[in-house]
Amino acid sequence: MKVKIDGKVYDTTKAERIIEELSAEYDSGLPRMDLDYIREGLYKQDGVLFLAGESGARGRYAKNEETGGKIGGEGGYILSLEEAKEWIELTQGSNASAALMLLLDGFVII
Fold this sequence. Notes:
alpha+beta
């Protein structure tokens, strides 16, 4: 998936998926047509952390419909290191500790 964020294109096929070793991403487990469906992964490209995914009409990737409502969509968001850590803690359950270690690999904590 390619997403354009702040004028730059991020490509999930070329970016490093932070927790790929754990085969982890977040999936709500709901059907794709459900309003609350969400599926996303945490990536790093050119030193920038970002989420990329898709959601139903009530999710973070929803788009405005021409008639004034919302529809499901896909997209991405740049995250700070702290936001990425929070996302991991909220979504990775028993894999959170291992995922945090993978995220912090290469980052200096001051």
